Amino acid sequence: MGRKKGSKNLSKKSKELVKKGLQEAKEGKLSPLEPNDLVEKNNTQISQERRDRLNATLREINKIIPDSVKYAKDIEERARLSFGYKCLDNLTGQGIPEGTYTTIWGSKGCAKTTIVLDLIAKAQKNGKQCIYINGERSYDPVWAKKRGVDVDSLIIVDVETIEQGLDTIIKLCRERVADLIVLDSIHGLAPHGELYEGKAEKEKSVEQDTMALRARKMTQFFEMATSFVANAKCAIILIGQSRMDLSGFIKLEHLTGGHALMHFSRLILRVRRGQKADAPVEKRPTGKITEKGKPEMESIPIGFDLVIHVDKSQIPNCTEGQEIHVPFLFEDGIHE
After folding, report:
1. If we measure between CA atoms, which residue out of 294, 281, 296 comes closest to residue 335?
2. What string of DSSP letters covers 111-153?
C-alpha cells in the first residue's frame, strides 16, 4: 500500500519539532515537562541526554495533539453527581462519575426513570445543566415536577432514531455545553436501518431482518464519543430495558445492546422489584366488623420493594455484586 497523502509532510514537520526541542534543551530553556535532574526507576538511571530527547518528543506530541501530555500525578479523580439519596450514594461510592457512562437497566415499572429524575433534580440544585433525550416519549412533566426537577431549565430533546439520540450526545459533549445527559432509552429507539432502506429511504416492513443493528451503532457511538464525553466532564446515563432469554430452561432477564455497552459503561446498575412480601403496605378498614366488634383491616400495597444491584463497577468505593433493598412508594418514590 502507498503512503497516505500528507504523511511525508507530517514526518518532516515532526523531525523539525524534535530538532528544535533538542536545541532548546541544550540552551537550557524550560521544557513543558520539568522532571528532576535525575530520575531513578528499577535501579536504572535516565541520563540527561535521554531526558532531553524525551522532553523534545513530548513537546512535539503536545504541538500535534494539544494538551495531550501530562504527568500521571496530575490526573484527578472523577467528580461525582449525587443521587440525592444516602442509600444510593453509599452503594455507588457517592454517585455517578462525570466524564463517562452509567447504564441503569431493568424491566418495566421498576423506577428507572424516577431514579434518573431524582438525580437530575439534585444536579440542578448544584448548578448543573441537564439534558433529557426523550426517545420513548415517556417524559411526564407532572411527575418530573413532583420529583423536584426544575422544568424551566431542563432541556428535552425528542428524537426518532437511536442515531439521532447518539449524535445529539456527541454534539453536546463536543461543544461542552452539558453536565448531565440522559438517553431514555437505548431500546426504545429503533436504528435508522430498521425503519428505512436505500437513499430514497423507503420504509421497511417488520418482516425484514435487521439483526444486531443497535449493537453495531452502539459500538460506533462509543468509539466516536468517548474522548468528547471525557473532555466535557459530562455524565452520560443510558437507560436500558431488560430482555428475556428464552433459550434455556429458566427464563432470565438480561441487558442487550452489544459488548461495547458492557465494556464502556463504568457503572451498570440493575433495578428490579423484589418479593411481594417485602412491599410496603398500609392498613385500611374493609368496612366489616370482626367478631370482637372491631373494624376489620386489610393490608394494601402502596409500593414495592426496590432492589438495586451493582452489575459492574469500575469506579472507586463501589463494589460489584452489592445490592440494596429500598421501599418505593407509588405516590412518593424512594423512601429511605
Report:
1. 281
2. SHHHHHHHHHHHHHHTT--EEEEESSS---HHHHHHTT--TTT
pTM across the whole model:
0.82
List the single range of 54-58, 163-167, 181-185 with lowest mean pLDDT.
54-58
pLDDT score for 246: 61
Please answer whether residues 319 and 306 qualify as being in contact, where contact means their C-beta atoms are separated by less than 8 angstroms.
no
- Pairing relationship of beta strands 80-81 and 96-97 according to DSSP bridges: antiparallel
Please spell the DSSP secondary structure of 294-313, one letter per residue: SEEEEEEE-EEEEEEEEEEE
Q: Give the separation between CA 167 and CA 88, rounded to whole angstroms.
A: 30
* Position with higher pLDDT, 221 vs 200: 221
The rounded Cα 225 to chain-centroid distance in angstroms is 11
The single-letter DSSP state of residue 16 is H
> Domains plus CATH for the chain?
8-74 (no CATH), 80-334 (3.40.50.300)
Query: pLDDT of 146-167, one tens digit each?
Result: 999 999 999 999 999 999 999 9
E runs forming strands in the chain: 39-41, 44-46, 80-81, 96-97, 101-106, 130-134, 155-157, 180-184, 196-197, 202-203, 235-245, 252-255, 265-273, 281-289, 295-301, 303-313, 323-329, 333-334
